[in-house]
Structure formats: C-alpha cells, structure tokens
Queue: 3 jobs
Job 1
Amino acid sequence: MRHSALFCVATVALIANSASVHAAATRSAVTGRADANSRILLHQRVTNFPKTGDVQIDVIRGTVPPGGSTGWHVHLYPQTSYVLSGSLILQHRDGSRIANMQAGQANVEPAGVVMRAINSSKSIPAVIVLIQVSAPGTPTVKSGS
C-alpha cells in the first residue's frame, strides 16, 4: 500500500520534467541515486487505501477543451492528477471542496467522491495527467450522474 502511493508520487514527478531530466530521473530511480533536477511535486498521505495483492497502474493523459468539463464522475480508487498546461477548477458535487489547479500543480482526488473538473478558459485547453493505482481490472472512472 505504501509503495503504491510512493510510486504514484514518483510517477508524477517523472512526468513533470523534460525528456532529458525524465531519462536521468528514471536512471536515478533504478540506481537509487538522487538526481539534482528531480523534485517531488506532491507528497500526500492517502488514508483508507483499499488493500489488494497485485496492482494495476494507469497513467492517462487527457485534455479538457476551453469551456469544457469532465462531467460528474467518481474514482473508485484515489487518483493523482498533474496539470501539464492550462488550468482546471475541481469541484465536489456536495460542495465540500473547490480547488483551482494551475500548470505544474498536483492533487490527489479521493475515491468515492462525485466530482468534476472544469476548464474556465475561453481559449486555452487544459492538459492533465492522471495516475491511478488500483486492483487489476478496475476502471479509472465511473459516471457520477
């Protein structure tokens, strides 16, 4: 469980860097040496992470067009998101949370919460990378309507 969450954070850090830094960070992760250009973008404890033997890791790159939305949806496992470009407003349907995410920011979206992401820009697409560590065969999202 702890290794899954750490892997998730490490994956976000690798995606955020340029291709050359990505290659160096990958080599560093394999050898165990720290790379001077690597940085942790998000370090957050995830509580109540479902226990499972084998895990499935999904890394998804998506684009929310200007004025668009993901629609209401639910993640079955916690999902880490990283905004590559543009910005997004994250909303929980119950009103418990509204967050503004800018390029370069990471966030953990909790499991079981109906939420959506909105791109309020009129001209700039929001590009996001999502990382989910879950039980094998688990879909990354289900409708929250």
Note: The beta strands are 56-64, 73-74, 79-85, 87-92, 98-102, 106-109, 115-118, 126-134, 142-143.
Job 2
Amino acid sequence: MKRKLVQRYTFKDPATGERFIREKYEIIKPNQTAMNDVKIKGYYNPENHERTVYVNGDLLNPVTSLLVRKHSPDGFNWGYGGSGPSQLALAICLHLLPKKDALRAYMKFKERYLVNLEQSAGFELEILGREFAELVGAEYLQP
C-alpha cells in the first residue's frame, strides 16, 4: 500500500536526551485489489557498515518501524535470524500492508526472504504479488 506523509516532527527523550523523528502517514488505497510485484533493494556500505533499503523505489526509514516494535535500535540488517532482520522485515511489511497484517506477517517474511541473504553485501529481491499475498495470508491481496 502507498502512504502519504501527513506530518513529521521530532521529539527528545527527557531521560536520555536522544532525539527521535515521528512521522504520521495517510494510507492511499490502490484502485485495484491485487498486490503488485514487490521490488526490494538493499545497499551495504562496507566502510561504515551502513545499510539502506528501498521498497518499490521508496527509502525505508527504521524509525517508522521502531515506533511500532523495537527489535533493533541499531537499524536494519539481513543475513541471519536476529533483531536487525526482524526490524527490516517489519519495516517492509508496514510499508506494504496495513499495520494489523504487517504485524502478523513480518516474521514469516524475515524467515523466507532475509535470513539467507549475504550479510556483508547488498541484495535485490523481486517478489511476485501473488507470492507475497500467499506468504502473508492476506486473501484480499490475491488477484
């Protein structure tokens, strides 16, 4: 599902002094009921070990998924079954699905697509809409 940024603001945790960004989105419902194919690209910078991920061309922000569930405050990762891949799977599913469905599906998504990737390299995944819908168990997404 596409989302439109409605509001963005920063706040400071009084206990730690750490700054956070909170974003509010409005869901834009597609004209069709079938899920489109999903393209996910992950980039890895070996110099600073930074990871950047795009879903259908949209940059994923870890803060958005951290506000829903805190697996990895260090951000996204892939190539093993731990907290970084869990945070990435949640972010991807939240980007594509309503929150309720994303929370139900993201661990299955992680196990199927993220655990076996090469950790110290980038990746590119193209998932058929039908395959994604079957994985997350969302009947309304199937054509």
Note: The radius of gyration is 15 Å.
Job 3
Amino acid sequence: MTTRPPVAPFAQKTSFEFPHDLDAEQALLGAILVDNNLLAEVQLVVSPRDMYRAAHGLILEQMLVLQRAGTPIDYVTLKDALVRVNRLDAIGGPAFLASLGDGIPRQLNVSEYARIVRDAADPRAVASNGHGRAGRSVTESRKLWRSSDPLCHTYRRPLTRLHG
C-alpha cells in the first residue's frame, strides 16, 4: 500500500481546490535527480513553498541543502538527507521518493515545468495571504469585542440584539 504524501496545509482547510500541477512538480524534481545542474535554473523560478504538495516542497528543500553542501543529488543522498532531518516518512517514504523518476519525459523541459509550478503557486500565495489576513481580522475583532473599553460596550449591546 502506498502512503499518500500530505498536501500544503492551506489546501486541507477548504473544499476549494487551489491551482496546482502535480505532474509538473514531480517532473521538475525528477529532472533534478537526473541532472543536478538543473537545480540552479529551477531555484531562480521556484522555491520549496511554491510546491502544492508539501512533500514536494520538503524534497526540493533538501535538494537545495545538498546543493549548498556540494553533495551530488540522487536517490541515495536525498533519502539520507530526509532521514537526517526526520522527514522521510513525512514525504511518503522511500517508495514515494523513488517514484519521482517515474514518467519523466525524454526531453527535460525544466524551465517550462518551473514556469507551470510558479504560475500555479502565485494565485495560491494570494489566496493564502488573504486567508491569513481574514483570520487576523477575526482575531482582532474578537479581542475588541471582549474589550473592557466603554466605547466597545456602547456598540456591543445593540449588535448583540441584532446577531443573537
């Protein structure tokens, strides 16, 4: 049985499906495993938080760590890096990591994959930012509602009657 990797936290909070392309994400990561030099091009366009599937973001993050350390990126070194930070299970285990190489096109169009991932990430970032602001507004409204400020009490009583 294959463990399904987690998706980004904001995608779990709603039934609305945010824009994404998991095939492009997987092709991007698989292409980097085939040719480590592609990571330099990818990181100019995509960051780990641009990935829709949280597992893909964790994998890209560890690829960047390996690159900074001057370590070649392949299945073994990437698996070891994920084990060292205790994230291998979080991405879906060794089987999911090995599946990144499945279905990689013969011609690696990494710049196009990166563009697809980035184009999908932009609207998610806007939506996520808006969701966070709305949450902060609700929190601030609750603080104000519970305030002992006399002015707040003046408006609270009529609003309580209107909203039960």
Note: Residues 110-145 form the longest helix (36 residues).
